[in-house]
Amino acid sequence: MFLTDDERRMLDGESGRGVQRAMELLVALGEAFDAEKMIDISRAHVSIGGQESDIFYVEELVAGNARCKVPPTINPDWDVDTLVKYYKVSDHQVDLARKFSDLYGRIGAVLSWSCTPALMDNVPVYGEHIAFAESSAAVYANSVLGALTNRESSQSALAAAVIGRTPEYGLHLAKNRKGTVLVNVEAPLRDDLDWKLLGWYIGRAVGLETPVIKLPPATGTPTPEQLLNMGAAMNTSGTVPLFHIPGVTPEAIKAGSTVIGKRLKKAWNVTHRELDQLRGQISEESGPVNMILLGCPHYTLNQIREVATALDGRQIRAQAPMWIQTSFHNLALAERMGYKLAIESAGAHLVADTCIDQACWGNFEGGHGLTDSPKCAYYRSKRGHSFKIASLRDCLRIALNGASAQ
Ligand code: F3S
Question: I need a surface site. Which of 92, 352, 359, 378 has the fewest CB within 10 A?
Answer without folding.
Answer: 92
